[in-house]
């Protein structure tokens, strides 16, 4: 994401980061984000005493785990979508209140049904914190003109996330052992009150909702309510089916299919889908991030749950002892998460996570009921490293790979995939420990985790895009100045960024977006073309939705065009001589994903610029167009030439900085940073959406 902040970046990059992400802003986000992982894991040490007091089987108490998993898996992306539409602070505060209510209901509950309701409330409420935090962090980074992810802040979220999940069993062991199982619920009361107080005082107010935007119908349309319902039904059926294994619940499988088919059909056709299947397919980096997170958490939670059961059943440790033996795992995760995140590392931590997962899994296969406590601690320490590395690497990869306006939903899905990993760990544990938590079952768990670790390793080392961007995912250790993470270009270290002045408003009826040279033979020549197309596609949809104009420009030649190119034209004389890019060739046709529609302007050019050899200027003036938004391939070709021309014709010009690309990333950088700001306003697709909404 390129910078869109007002003013010029005269101060070092780390200064605005320090000022924008001071402790009063980040503290409530950290506390809120810690609630879900702690509640996910703390119940592990309370299930046996709950079963004893309520006179139910230990197996029956598994619903307390699965209910929170299910509620969280559905609610995380839903909360993220609501945060994007209604405002992150509103959704964050609502979630905190639900957690407080769930703590009270569970603490005073007298039967398993009441406790299940409490866990569902806690699951829904805690699900709001992480996606809302990511939305607020991303927006504040944009407002501060920060290009690089705020690594220190993401490190804090990592500690509040998986690192705190690792200390859930020790905390639970101490609380349950000292004060009883009800404190597995009561622990939420003081924490939520603190988070609520800090959030009300310190988190920035959301913009007021317009009356027209706050109606149920409008909100339902903007959040894609049918998509959310379909996703919830599909996810619920999937979780129920998985949790029923090894005795499959066939009715859940039928519901899964019945819910999934129409949901997929709807989401592929929705203008603003909740679960953007096309975008996910195009954004391979994000898809791989989700898969890595799910598989690595499969290992981490297997240690937290599977080894806890094995230590108590096969090794004879008490609840408190089992929790304390896993305490170093959480400590290592917490100690490593923040320093790794501050450097914005991605590839290194992900490879480390895969290797340590393999090493720890092999260690599990060597443990027996006669192994000393130090051996168990060493295995847990290895998984502590894996937990920190995977959380940091994948969280930073998520921040970079996600368009700014979709970060809430993407962050929620990130957690959902993580929960699928934890659910899988529970299912696998129930299968291998079906006849009791034995050494043989533990070794089977280790074997499964070795296989998962191999897959994670392949998802990392064979990811060519991740390998290519490795250098862009680091910062200068000498001055700790963040280096922007790029999907298409790299900023040299210590370089000061230039940004454009405050961006004026847009009048949609007098605005046209130019989609230039997005044709079959050109699109694949730049880095990450699918993600670029999806961003431009979204910008086109936004302009259309408010009544703006779309103009499609392509470069292609007829016989007469070839013959009329003089030898003095250094670039195009070669095109004419070789009879290249005929206007009927498939390579010169528009990319089908952003093909023209009825009412769009379509022009064919025979030089770099979109105006010089076409009647585009006249067509725009006939429609009263005064403002142009430029997107295209390449930055040094059609975008540069068109910008110079239309600026001289006195159009108000915007350049979509994440809607252009060049074959040479360095040329792209220089033009965006050094040349374009004097002639155009620089915005990204997220900022365009904000301008259109405000129009």
| Beta-strand content estimate | 5-15%
**Could you tell me the mean pLDDT?**
81
Question: Number of DSSP helices?
Answer: 31
Shape: elongated
Q: Alpha-carbon distance between the termini?
A: 23 Å
| Main pleated-sheet profile | 6 strands, parallel
Low-confidence stretches: 1-17, 468-501
Helicity level, as a percent range?
55-70%
Overview of the structural elements:
The protein is mainly α and 695 residues long. The chain is built from 31 helices and 6 strands. A 6-stranded parallel beta sheet has the order 3-2-1-4-5-6, with helices on both faces. Helix 30 links the parallel strand 5 (652-661) and strand 6 (681-683). The longest helix has 30 residues, at 284-313. Residues 1-17 and 468-501 have low confidence and may be disordered.
Topology:
Blueprint: H1 14-20, H2 23-42, H3 47-54, H4 62-86, H5 88-108, H6 112-126, H7 129-143, H8 151-166, H9 168-179, H10 183-186, H11 188-202, H12 216-223, H13 225-244, H14 250-269, H15 277-282, H16 284-313, H17 319-325, H18 327-342, H19 347-366, H20 373-401, H21 407-432, H22 439-461, H23 464-468, E1 511-516, H24 520-523, H25 529-545, E2 549-555, H26 559-563, H27 572-577, E3 601-605, H28 616-622, E4 627-633, H29 635-648, E5 652-661, H30 665-675, E6 681-683, H31 685-694
Parallel strand pairs: 1-2, 1-4, 2-3, 4-5, 5-6
Helix pairs in contact: 2-6, 2-7, 2-8, 2-9, 2-11, 4-5, 4-6, 4-7, 4-13, 4-21, 5-6, 5-7, 5-11, 7-21, 8-18, 8-20, 9-17, 12-13, 13-14, 13-21, 16-20, 16-21, 16-22, 18-20, 19-20, 19-22, 25-31
């Amino acid at each position: 994401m390129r910078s869109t902040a007002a003013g010029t970046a005269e101060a070092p990059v780390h200064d605005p980061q320090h000022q924008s992400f001071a402790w009063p802003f980040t503290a409530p986000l950290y506390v809120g984000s810690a609630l879900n992982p702690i509640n996910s894991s703390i119940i592990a040490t309370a299930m046996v005493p709950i079963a004893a007091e309520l006179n139910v089987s230990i197996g029956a108490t598994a619903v307390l785990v699965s209910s929170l998993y299910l509620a969280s898996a559905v609610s995380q992306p839903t909360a993220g979508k609501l945060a994007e539409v209604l405002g992150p602070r509103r959704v964050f505060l609502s979630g905190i209140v639900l957690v407080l209510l769930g703590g009270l209901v569970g603490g005073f509950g007298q039967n398993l049904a009441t406790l299940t309701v409490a866990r569902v409330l806690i699951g829904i409420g805690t699900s709001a914190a992480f996606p809302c935090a990511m939305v607020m962090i991303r927006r504040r980074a944009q407002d501060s003109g920060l290009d690089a992810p705020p690594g220190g802040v993401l490190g804090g979220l990592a500690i509040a996330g998986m690192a705190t999940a690792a200390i859930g069993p020790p905390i639970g062991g101490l609380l349950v052992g000292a004060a009883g199982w009800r404190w597995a619920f009561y622990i939420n009361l003081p924490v939520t009150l603190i988070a609520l107080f800090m959030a009300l005082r310190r988190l920035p107010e959301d913009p007021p909702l317009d009356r027209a935007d706050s109606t149920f119908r409008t909100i339902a349309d903007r959040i894609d309510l049918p998509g959310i319902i379909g996703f919830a039904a599909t996810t619920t059926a999937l979780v129920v089916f998985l949790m029923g294994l090894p005795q499959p619940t066939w009715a859940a499988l039928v519901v899964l299919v019945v819910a999934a088919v129409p949901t997929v059909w709807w989401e592929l056709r929705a203008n603003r889908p909740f679960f953007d299947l096309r975008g996910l397919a195009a954004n391979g980096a994000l898809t791989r991030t989700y898969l890595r997170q799910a598989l690595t958490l499969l290992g981490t939670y297997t240690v937290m749950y599977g080894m806890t059961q094995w230590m108590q059943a096969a090794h004879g440790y008490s609840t408190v002892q089992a929790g304390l033996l896993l305490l170093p795992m959480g400590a290592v995760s917490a100690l490593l998460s923040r320093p790794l995140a501050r450097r914005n590392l991605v590839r290194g931590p992900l490879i480390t996570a895969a290797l340590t997962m393999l090493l720890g899994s092999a260690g599990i296969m060597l443990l027996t009921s006669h192994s000393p406590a130090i051996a168990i601690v060493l295995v847990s320490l290895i998984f502590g490293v894996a937990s920190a590395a995977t959380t940091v690497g994948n969280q930073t990869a998520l921040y970079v790979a996600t368009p700014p306006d979709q970060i809430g939903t993407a962050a929620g899905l990130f957690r959902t995939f993580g929960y699928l990993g934890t659910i899988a760990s529970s299912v696998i544990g129930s299968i291998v420990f079906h006849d009791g938590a034995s050494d043989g079952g533990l070794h089977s768990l280790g074997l499964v985790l070795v296989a998962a670790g191999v897959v994670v390793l392949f998802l990392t080392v064979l990811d060519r895009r991740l390998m290519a961007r490795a250098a862009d995912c680091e910062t200068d250790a000498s001055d700790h100045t963040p280096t922007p993470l790029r999907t298409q270009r790299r900023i040299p270290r210590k370089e000061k960024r230039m940004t454009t002045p405050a961006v004026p408003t847009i009048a949609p009826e007098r605005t046209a977006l130019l989609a230039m040279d997005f044709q079959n033979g050109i699109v694949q020549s730049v880095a990450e073309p699918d993600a670029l197309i999806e961003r431009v596609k979204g910008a086109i949809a936004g302009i259309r939705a408010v009544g703006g104009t779309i103009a499609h420009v392509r470069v292609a030649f007829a016989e007469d065009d070839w013959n009329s190119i003089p030898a003095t034209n250094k670039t195009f004389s070669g095109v004419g001589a070789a009879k290249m890019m005929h206007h009927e060739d498939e390579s010169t046709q528009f990319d089908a994903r952003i093909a023209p529609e009825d009412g769009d302007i379509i022009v064919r050019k025979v030089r770099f610029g979109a105006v010089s050899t076409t009647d585009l200027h006249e067509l725009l003036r006939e429609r009263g167009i005064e403002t142009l938004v430029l997107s295209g391939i390449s930055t040094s070709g059609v975008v540069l030439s068109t910008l110079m021309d239309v600026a001289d014709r006195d159009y108000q010009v915007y350049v979509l900085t994440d809607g252009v690309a060049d074959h040479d990333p360095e040329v792209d950088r220089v033009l965006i940073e050094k040349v374009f700001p004097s002639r155009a306003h620089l915005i990204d697709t997220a900022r365009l959406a904000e301008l259109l909404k405000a129009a």
